[in-house]
Amino acid sequence: MLSRLRSRSPIPPNAATTTTTDALSDAIKSFQDCLDSDQKARLEAIKAVPDAHAVAQFTHQLDQENAKRKSRCVAARISPLLESVQQFAGIVETFVSSNPHIAALVWGSVKLVLQIASNFTTYFDKLSALLMTIGKRCPRFQEYQKLYRDSTDLQKALCDFYSMVVRCCEQAVTVLRRAGYIQLLKAVTSSFSLDFASIMMQIDQSSKEVNETILLTEAKLDTAERQDQRAEREAAERYRLSSMLYRKERERTEADRMAQMQLEKHKIQEATKLEQFCNYNHKIAYWKARTQRHGSTGQWLTQSEDFRRWVTESGSSVFWFTGILGSGKTVMTAFVVEQLSANSSQGTGKLAYFFCQYDNETSLKASTVLRSIIRQLVDQDDQIFTANLVEVNALLDNTNDLTLLVALFSGILESLKSVVVVLDGVDECSNSEMKFLLKALRGLMSRKPSGLKLYLSGDDRITDLIISFLTPSFVVNTHTPEAASDLQELIQQLVTVRREDEDLVTGDPTLYQEIIDVLCSASKGM
């Protein structure tokens, strides 16, 4: 959605713009001052704000490096914050013309700190947990994107919030310079929390101020629109009374201004319609699943011959990943999404995913699944929305018309070169919802779109149903030697983590291996 707003011309530099970014500029300068020469050079090398694809690549790279050290997977922990920073930096880049580098430096501060901290396993684990907490405090882009341009109060509140994120990055670098700090962390677990307690309090306060400002700005919106209309009439009257000498130039300027206003209004209407079409946050379940992965677990699936063929072979195909309850299908499917997202070719292929949750009734409806997937595809390509505006409007008036929904999905697929759809937990849906969803997918596949690849995962009790509806070309079960070895490694890592965190303590060190052996033998693939 950020791309829908980037076509706007920047706000002219003025005192208000400068004031809104003061705290952010000061925080960035302070962060730069705390770096050594090598770190400053690395920060300077980060020239631009990344897109969502680059963020996915970066988090995947961090996890791959941590896998070699048998550490916790951190991508899911830090992704909400990174995506929030990327979206904010993008909108700042669009509107703050007085300092074109400020957006890249906001993103660069967070990225550099993660790169530095990743060299210290214990510290990185604690820092990633802190950043996960901050990510939960971040403002939702969907809530402020339509309000940002016209509210200096909101601009300042957001800049103040992200200035505290940069201050946190500064603190993260500063404490690492203390002599023996890593050793202290291992000995005194509370030392880390104490070092960041003050900053976290300020982040909490800034988060509340942003939310309050968003509500206040929304309340003022109707009044502001009426005032704008009156101002336009007055400006038009002054224009009619202006001298003939400048009329042609003013006509051109006025036409440009009106055209720009119409464009902005149109894009805001698009964003509003998409929120009405689907406001389900598909990322929450994905992030949750990613936090449960450790080290290199799950790589056996993406390195399997069947998976590689499914990804690389031309044409449409279905991949069915199955296993017993508790065998790690959801966690591994989250890694599949991470892998596909990091390796996808921007501009050619589209990726959409959905995780059904047994404790979230909304996620178990076929209409929610389909709407979410369509919304994700539209968000990746502005032209899709424009080309299917009539169908989207029809679905806003007929929210329960699943036939229209499938027709829209089919039309979108025909306009795209390559689409990968990942669905997890389809067996969690009721029998009727699951069958409708599978029927819809079968209808899409029957049209033989050249580039549609489906990945589904679920309990092996519905394998026959999946085969009858979709005839998957590839079937992989968690009951394999590779999966068993993967499970043993996971248990080993979990016991090690519990031991390091002192959640598991024994008087006899030899008992740790015995605990691992017992858990492995009793797990039975779960």
From TrEMBL:
SUPFAM superfamilies: P-loop containing nucleoside triphosphate hydrolases. The keyword Coiled coil applies. Keywords: Coiled coil, Repeat. The keyword Manganese does not apply. Transmembrane segments: none annotated. Signal peptide: none annotated. Residues 297-456 form the Nephrocystin 3-like N-terminal domain. Residues 207-234 form a coiled coil. It comes from the Eukaryota. Residues 82-213 form the DUF7708 domain. This is NACHT domain-containing protein. It comes from Aureobasidium melanogenum (Aureobasidium pullulans var. melanogenum).
